[in-house]
Structure formats: C-alpha cells, structure tokens
C-alpha cells in the first residue's frame, strides 16, 4: 500500500473509493455500496455488513460463539442471538433490538455525563476550593491565636512580676519597720546597761571609802533596774502559697473553643475512593460510643471523672469504685457510715468527695482516709459538685428531713458561704426530690435537675431560666436525671423517660439530642477535659463513653 494512503481519507478496501459507507463486522473491512455485493459472494464465511456509523455494535453470543447478538433481554440485562430465542432460553421475557437498547443506554450515559460535568464535578471543585480557603484561614487563625496565647502569657507574667515586686516591697517595708523597732530597743538597752555599769563602778568606790558624807548620800537604784524591759520578738513573715497544680494552671490559663479531631472522626477516610464507592452518609458530628465499661453494681447511679482515663462510680451499695477505660477495677472506697452514698464528685486536686444522705454528712477522701467535711441538721445532701471558681468551692443540693423544702448551699471547706432557696418573689426555686443532680457551668451558673425541669440560676442565685424540654416534640415526657456541662458552656441532661441526652446552650436554647447510642435508663453524667461524655446506665450498670 502506498504510504500516502494513511494521510488520505478512508477508502474502500476493495476499490479504494473514498468514504465507504459500509463495514463488515466479520472481515473488519470498509466497503462502498458497489463492492458489498461482491463481498457477500464469498461464502467461505458468514458476513455481517452494517452501515459505517454502526460498526462495532455487533457482539458475539456468550452461548453460541459462532452467532452474533442482535437482540437484548431487558429482564436478564444481556444481549443474545436468534439461536437463543429458538432454544426458549428467554421465553416470555421482554426483548428489544440491540441497536435500540444501545441508543437508550447512550442517552442515559449522555445524561450521566452531563450531570457529572455540569452539576456534580463543579460542586466537588467548590468543596475542594473551600478546603483551600479553610487551610489559609486555619493558618491565619493559628497565627492569630498563637499571638493571643503568647500575649496572654506575657500579661500573666507581667502580673506575676508585679505581684512579686509588690510582695517583695511589702516584705522590705515590714523588715524596715521591724528594724527601726529593734534599733530603738537596742539603743534603750545600751543606755541602761551603761547606767548600770556606772552604778557598779560607783558602788565599788563607795565600798572602799570612809567618807561618811559621801556614803550617807548613796541612793539605791536597783528597784528601778529590776523592772526589766519586755523581751519583744518581731514577727518573721513567711511566704504562704498554695501547692502548684499543673492541671489546674492549664485550665485556668484559658481554653480553646474546640479540639481538632482525627479525619476519620469527621466522616472522611484517608484512603482514596474507588470508582464505584459512595460518599460517607454518616453526619460529621454524629455521636458514637468509644468505650463501654461494665460495673459490678446491681443499680448504677453516679459517675465522676477522676481523669481522662479513670472514672469514679457509685450505686446501690456502700462501695465507691474506680475504673479505667478498659473496664479494669482500679480502687474501691467504703463509706465511713456503711451506708450507700447519694452522690460523688472529684475536687481539682483529685480527692473523692461523697454525700451521705442517710448520715447527713458530706465527706472527703484524702490518702484513703475519710474526713467529715460537713454535718447537717434537719437537712440531707442529695447531690454535690465542685465549683469552677478559683476558690474551688463545693456546691450541695440539700433536702429537708420532712421532704418539703430544698436548697442549694455553697461551701468553702466546712464554712457555709451562700444559700440559694427562693426567687425574687419569695417562691421556692426547687422541688425536693432525691433524684436531683447539681452542677456548675463555665460561666458559674448553677444548674439543678428537678422532677420534670432543669432550673438555672446565676452566681448570685438569681433565677435565669427553667428548661422543661424543647418547645415542640413528639417524644415522651421530660424526666431529667444526671446533668453536666462541657467546655463550651453547653448543658447536657440525661432524660430517663426517653433514654437520650438533651444538649442546650448556656441560655437554655435546645440544640440537639444524643439519641443514637442505645442508652438504657441514663442516670449519671460527667465529661472529661476533652468533652467526652460518660453516661451511667441505671439498670444495665454500664458506663458508656460517648464522643459527641
């Protein structure tokens, strides 16, 4: 063949007529209409001649390899040949021509292509470009927040330096005043000693003198010298400071509004998607259980975080148990009275505090030794919690012996500092119930779960709001039990009736439920430093750690 043919138009393989309109699917040759008849005269094989635009549409039958498919079965979703029809293989099935189904498929593919190009792909590009913007914003925000953290640290250092200078100046002033006093006392003693020594010298001379006139003039001053001046001891000041708690310092220094999570926790995977895979359908913020701890109680009531790895629990016995997140028992403490505790909490320094309603006491455990911190008369402690204030107060919810009254009391050590019982109109803020639970929010609001509502007051005890459930819901009645707050100031409430968790903001606005973790009789709640939620289930006696 002439080399120039490759650069010419397509020609008939038999006569080289340009632009042949026909094609033999068996011989793979292009032909003009004149040459088609000549080509079909070759009876050595069965030729299949089709229009040029339909070339490649013919498929060999999978059951009869010598036959070509020209029919398509819609039920079986496969092409087949005439021989398959005669054999009854697709009897009663809907059959269409192979060219018609091909055209139908092409139209569907065209629609898919159009959707991919004009709708889906641009959205992915938009999301990808948004990632680029977020990365830039992340870098800018990181620099901004780093500067703010450093500036805050410098301000704290300046305040600390100022405090050091002020305290050093106070110490120097105290030393100066004490030194002036000591110098005056020293001068007086030196002068008196000098007079006494002169008297001694004079007496020695008189004892050796026979001059009656001089001896008779002697007057004793011993009575004067017997009145010794008082021995003054100046106070030596000591520098008194609290023990440095690194965890407390970190918490008081400040906090980040949100912690970064792993990519898989946000609904993405680090693996590249397959061509047939579908995008993740799990919401990015869907709560999930990260740990499930079985306790040894018959009924479990309360849970309190000692750390991010260990939790204290209490239930229907007089034993309080410490578990790690693997479910291993770490420690046990028995109540001093032998009665079951009504509530537990953990101080900033890691000491366990428990309320003993039957014994009317609040007790603290220090180095395995139980110390009675508060003893009540006419009242019983239903619930306790530690305060987020710098002073680290203890808050207690107390119920009168007759069960008619309830109040919140703030303690500093064993000293009562504040009582909250009535609103501005003199009405009782709280309904008495031994299932009540108290906690304090990051803005120092005091939150109490009552029989059918959560009552929130501010630091001064003024009523802020009462939460009785979302404004509209098809769920059952609201029965709050355990209550806690997180680093964002959100309030989390265990709803015993509906077996899920309500999340509201610090102003009482409903945000969402945690209702996908199969919680059974949620009773006690607490959160760790990373806002993982621990839920104590009353009847199953399990503690579930939930990432929400």
TrEMBL record:
Instruction: Give the compositionally biased regions (Polar residues).
Output: 269-278
Q: Which CDD domains match?
A: Bbox2 (cd19756)
Q: Which residues form the B box-type domain?
A: 7-52, 61-98
* Keyword Coiled coil in record: no
InterPro entries in alphabetical order: 6-blade_b-propeller_TolB-like, TRIM45/56/19-like, Znf_B-box
GO MF terms here are:
zinc ion binding
Enumerate the UniProt keywords alphabetically: Metal-binding, Zinc, Zinc-finger
Gene3D superfamilies recorded: 2.40.10.500, Classic Zinc Finger, TolB, C-terminal domain
- The domain of life is Eukaryota
List the Pfam families hit by this protein, alphabetically.
zf-B_box
Q: Where is this region: Disordered?
A: 265-287
Q: What is this protein called?
A: B box-type domain-containing protein
Q: Which organism is it from?
A: Magallana gigas (Pacific oyster)
Native organism taxonomy: Eukaryota, Metazoa, Spiralia, Lophotrochozoa, Mollusca
């Amino acid at each position: 063949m002439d080399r120039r043919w490759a650069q010419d138009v397509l020609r008939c393989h038999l006569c080289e007529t340009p632009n042949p309109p026909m094609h033999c699917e068996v011989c793979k040759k292009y032909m003009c209409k004149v040459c088609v008849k000549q080509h079909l005269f070759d009876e050595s094989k069965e030729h299949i001649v089709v229009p040029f635009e339909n070339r490649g549409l013919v498929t060999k039958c999978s059951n009869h390899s010598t036959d070509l498919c020209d029919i398509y079965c819609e039920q079986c979703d496969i092409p087949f040949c005439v021989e398959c029809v005669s054999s009854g293989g697709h009897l009663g099935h809907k059959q269409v021509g192979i060219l018609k189904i091909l055209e139908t498929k092409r139209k569907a593919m065209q629609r898919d292509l159009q959707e991919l190009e004009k709708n889906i792909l641009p959205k992915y590009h938009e999301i990808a470009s948004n990632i680029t913007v977020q990365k830039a914003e992340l870098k800018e925000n990181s620099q901004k927040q780093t500067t703010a953290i450093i500036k805050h640290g410098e301000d704290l250092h300046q305040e600390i330096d100022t405090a050091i200078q002020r305290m050093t100046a106070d110490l120097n002033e105290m030393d100066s005043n004490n030194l002036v006093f000591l110098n005056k006392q020293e001068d007086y003693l030196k002068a008196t000693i000098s007079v006494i020594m002169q008297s001694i010298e004079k007496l020695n001379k008189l004892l050796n003198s026979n001059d009656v006139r001089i001896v008779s003039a002697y007057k004793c001053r011993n009575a004067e010298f017997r009145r010794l001046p008082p021995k003054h001891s100046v106070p030596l000041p000591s520098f008194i400071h609290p023990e440095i708690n690194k965890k407390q310092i970190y918490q008081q220094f400040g906090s980040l509004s949100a912690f970064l999570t792993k990519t898989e926790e946000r609904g993405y995977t680090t693996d590249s998607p397959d061509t047939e895979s579908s995008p993740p359908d799990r919401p990015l913020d869907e709560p999930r259980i990260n740990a499930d701890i079985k306790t040894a109680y018959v009924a479990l009531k309360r849970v309190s975080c000692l750390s991010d790895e260990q939790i204290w629990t209490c239930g229907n016995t007089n034993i309080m148990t410490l578990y790690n997140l693997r479910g291993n028992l770490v420690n046990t403490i028995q109540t001093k009275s032998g009665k079951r505790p009504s509530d537990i909490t953990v101080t900033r320094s890691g000491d366990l505090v428990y309320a003993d309603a039957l014994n009317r006491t609040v007790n603290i455990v220090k180095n395995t030794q139980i110390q009675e911190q508060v003893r009540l008369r006419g009242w019983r402690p239903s619930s306790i919690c530690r305060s987020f204030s710098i002073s680290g107060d203890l808050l207690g919810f107390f119920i009168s012996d007759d069960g008619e009254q309830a109040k919140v009391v703030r303690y500093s050590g064993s000293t009562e500092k504040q009582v909250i019982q009535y609103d501005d109109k003199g009405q009782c803020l709280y309904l008495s119930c031994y299932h009540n639970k108290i906690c304090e929010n990051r803005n120092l609001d005091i939150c109490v779960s009552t029989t059918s509502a959560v009552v929130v007051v501010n630091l001064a005890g003024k009523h802020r709001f009462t939460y009785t459930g979302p404004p509209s819901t098809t769920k059952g009645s609201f029965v709050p039990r355990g209550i806690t707050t997180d680093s964002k100031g959100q309030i989390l409430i265990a709803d015993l009736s509906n077996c899920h968790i309500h999340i509201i903001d610090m102003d009482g606005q409903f945000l969402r439920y945690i209702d996908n973790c199969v919680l059974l009789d949620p009773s006690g709640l607490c959160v760790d430093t990373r806002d993982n939620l621990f839920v104590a289930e009353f009847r199953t006696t399990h503690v579930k750690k939930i990432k929400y």
